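hiii, so i know i said id send this last week but things got crazy w the move. better late than never?? heres the sequnce for the chain we talked about at the cafe, plus the structure i predicted for it. fair warning i was half asleep when i ran it
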Amino acid sequence: MEISGAEIAELAAKSAYDRKALDIIILDLKGISSITDYFVICTGNSDTHVQGIAEKIKESLDEKDVKLWNSEGERKATWILLDYIDVIVHIFTKEAREFYSLERLWGDAPKTTYDGED
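okay and structure toks below
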């Protein structure tokens, strides 16, 4: 059974929430970007926390047979990118998130804040 981009984004957000990620949002980029359909953006308190969030997301999506196509930034861990084609997950430290400000760059995209409620 194939899982949709929206379901992947929701599962990634839930996994980040389960690892105590902060300020979790989902940007719906359908019709706005040819890169992907969704961004999931969240923040960790430290490099180690960012790595832990990334590991939890990878484990959760792997359990659903969602293939990780590419990942970047795992050694430095101030910004880890997990590319699932239809969904790209960005996990930042607070400083990196403020610096790159993806929400501002994609400000025209519909935004959902994930707070753990279904």
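btw Residues 92 and 98 are 9 Å apart (CA to CA). thought thatd interest u
miss u guys!!
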